[in-house]
From TrEMBL:
InterPro entries: GEMIN2, Gemin2/Brr1. The SMN complex catalyzes the assembly of small nuclear ribonucleoproteins (snRNPs), the building blocks of the spliceosome, and thereby plays an important role in the splicing of cellular pre-mRNAs. It is found in: Cytoplasm. Pfam families: SIP1. Keywords: Cytoplasm, mRNA processing, mRNA splicing. Belongs to the gemin-2 family. One of its GO terms (biological process) is spliceosomal snRNP assembly. One of its GO terms (cellular component) is spliceosomal complex. Signal peptide: none annotated. This is Gem-associated protein 2. It comes from Esox lucius (Northern pike). Its main location: cytoplasm.
Length: 244
């Protein structure tokens, strides 16, 4: 006949009832799966069927106080606050970013690189209409809160979008930051698609590096880093730079 506990929580695994428990030591790790299950059975048998919480009535009568600050933001000094037109535009842009179509290559390129780079439009801050950093224009950095939510399929897709853009354009800081973050998200062993992509990235980086005019070019270090990570970390040794 089943006990009341077994009626409420039926056994999921067939475990023989442990009659002799002297040989079990709950402080030592189990030596096999059967011994593990016997330890669980023993621990369960030592638990009381009914547990009554001890509540101090005095604590229940204690009044709780919640401090809520009713003060608003401090007023901006004269000339520091943005215009209503600018605020509405940022809200509109932000609303679009919150609902991106993740399968759209164009939107991902705009998101990572920014409109200034993607559309090859000059930066225009005239008129003081942009007192803060406009990520829609300059590109969103690869925040951990963003890249940590990307699955491997999305990581490979965005990596492909950016490398395709890199094949037709030059190297910019926004691109380097996102390529580095996406490489950090790639899981090993690599899928065939990712394997091909990173080799394409290394080759393109070497092509751009070969056309630099001097060693002081700020693009040299990130280009070397892309080649190094692909070749040394992801074991594409045939692409590695050799010592001079």
């Amino acid at each position: 006949m089943k006990s009341d506990v077994e009626e409420l929580m039926p056994r999921l695994l067939p475990v023989e009832t442990c009659e002799i428990v002297e040989d079990l030591n709950l402080n030592e790790p189990p030596r096999n799966p059967q011994e593990y299950l016997r330890q669980v059975q023993l621990e369960a048998s030592l638990c009381p069927d009914v547990v009554v919480a001890k509540i101090d009535p005095k604590k229940l009568r204690k009044k709780q106080t919640v401090n809520v600050s009713l003060t608003g933001c401090q007023a901006a000094p004269p000339g520091f606050s943005p215009s209503i037109k600018w605020q509405r535009q940022q809200v509109s842009n932000f609303s679009e970013i919150r609902q991106p179509k993740q399968d759209a290559e164009e939107q991902w390129k705009r998101f990572c690189l920014g409109e200034n780079v993607y559309l090859n439009s000059p930066t225009n801050d005239a008129g003081g209409e942009n007192p803060g950093l406009d990520y829609v224009k300059v590109g969103f950095p690869p925040f951990l809160s963003i890249v940590s939510r990307l699955n491997q399929a999305t990581v490979s897709a965005v990596l492909e979008y950016l490398i395709n853009w890199f094949e037709e354009n030059g190297f910019v800081p926004q691109l380097g930051r996102w390529l580095y973050a996406l490489l950090a998200c790639l899981e090993k062993p690599l899928l065939p698609e990712a394997h091909s992509l990173i080799r394409q990235l290394a080759r393109r980086s070497s092509e751009v590096r070969a056309n630099l005019e001097n060693q002081e070019d700020e693009r040299l270090s990130p280009l070397n880093l892309m080649i190094c990570l692909v070749a040394r970390y992801f074991d594409q040794n045939d692409l590695a730079d050799k010592e001079d």
